[in-house]
Structures are given as C-alpha cells and as structure tokens.
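Our working data are protein records whose layout never changes between entries. An example says more than a description, so a record of this kind follows.
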Amino acid sequence: MFRYLSQRIVVLLIAFFGITIIAFSLIRLAPGDPITLLLGERSVSEELRKEMTANLGFDKPLITQYFLFIYQGLQGDLGTSVITKRPVVDEFFQRLPATLELGIIALLFAITVGMPFGICAAVKRNSFFDYFTSFTSLAGYSMPIFWWGLVLIIIFSVHIHILPVSGRMNLMYDIEPITGFMLIDVWLRGEGMPAFIDVLKHLILPGIVMGTLPLAVITRMTRSSMLEILKEDYIRTAHAKGLTNMRVIGIHALRNALIPVITVIGLAFGSIITGAILTETIFSWPGIGRWLVLSVTQRDYPVIQGGIVIIASMIIMINILVDTTYAIVNPKMRKQT
C-alpha cells in the first residue's frame, strides 16, 4: 500500500509543477498588462512606467520570475495582488468559505439524488425509469452551466419569484462573518430561523447548477457499478437464502458497488471548483471563482497564479485522500500493494 501511494504522490507532484508552469505562462500570453490597467490610458512618463514595472517585479526575465514564484510559494508567499495590494493567500482564504459552502451543498445534492437514482436504475434495468435516468444524466452532463443557470434564474427568480437571483443573503441581515459559512454564522450571531432560511434560499439555485455535472456522473457510475455487482454469484446466493431485496441490495450489493463511486465523488470536487468559476459569476457569489474571473479581466498576475496553484494543491490533496480511501476499502488493492 505504501508503494502504491508513493507512486501516486510522485505522479501528482509532477502534475502540480506542470500546472504551475501553465498558470504562470498562459496569463502572460494574453493581450494587455496590469501596468496599463493601473496607469490607465492617459499618457504617463516612461520613467513612471519603468518604476512601477520594477516595483512589481515584471522587469525580470520570465524564467527568473517563475523560479522566484516557486521559491516564494514554497514558503507560503504567493505574492501580493496588483489591484488590492493585499496578500493573495489572505484574499483566497477570505473567499474560500463561500465557495466551500456552495460546493458542499452542490455535492450533497449530487449524492442524495444521484446515488438513489443510479441504484433504482440498475435494479430496474431496461425499464422506463432506467431509460429516463440514463437520458437525464446524459443531458445533465452535456448541459452548459451558464445556460442552465440562466434558465433556472428565469423560471424561479424572474417568473415565479420564489428564489433570489444573486448574493449569499438578503441585505436586511447585516451579519459579521465568524466562520465564513453563512448557514453557521446566522446561528452564531443569533439571527434565528428567518435568516437561516434566507441563506438557504440563496444556496438553492447555484447549488443545483454547480451540482448538476457531478450528479450526472455519480448517477451513471452508481448504475454501472451496481449492474456489475448484481451479476455476481454471491448476490444470487443471497437471494437463494431467502434474503429480502432490500437487504441484498442495501447491504451486499451497495457496499461493494460503492468502491468506484467513492472515487468519483472525490474527483467530483475538481468539477465543482471549475464549475464555481461560471456559477459564481452568474449568481454574483462572492467566492473564489468570481474572484479569479475578476482577476483575469484586471490582469492581476499574482492572484491568478496563486489562486490556480492553491486550487491545484487542494485537488491534489483530495486525489491523495481518494486513493488512500480506495486502497483501504478495496481488499484487492491492499494485496497488490
């Protein structure tokens, strides 16, 4: 098992350094630069431009800037925002709770809906429900996030007027964040049930939009895994012993079918983070995704580089955790390692 995990860690570390190169390079290939954005289009002296370029470190060769970025990053310093003059790490973790709260809601939605649908589709194979589940999961996987978000806004916010269109809570509630998770902070501040319901309403639409893609993947993986397990001899033996369908499916089949599903759920974290970029922009959600989009438009190099590196590190840690869980749950993997 140690050998298996060490091999996985080496591969993920190589991928991490590849991501740092991509994050550093691609933003510099885009037209425009932060100096022009900061100084504006008005005419300024060349001396002032050179001085600001030197202060920001953009006068050094690109290879020097990259290795300086890596060296400082390993020490926990990912630079300072060109626009706000604040450390990138502080800005990231200030917005992280908003994205995590939305991501947790989206993942819970995907799991609680996707797994039961996948199980029922496998049990009722080739039925109308099975075909319906396969069609809807394929549609959910193929659906553009920005289009799906706008459709839900038009239906539930514009026409029906039952769900808010943007933000984390109503402006009538002035709550100073404690943990950054509004569902928790409203109770810690003693705002009560009305504020909690308001925060929950703001989470519903972006949570559904962000959770649609992992929902489709979890549904299809659960169905596929359950179909394989239901063909096994020990399942037929359990039926022959007179066990109820609920016991056979819930205990014998589902427990073994969960092994690949656990992997998919862990990897769904990556799709949720990438989905946050569009989802948070559509719903004006003050999280990491919207922060990165604004940074791209402002050519804020340190924010873009640092944000991508931190997100990549989080995804790598999730992958290591998933691989560890998979090796623990799967007896065959333990024997191989």
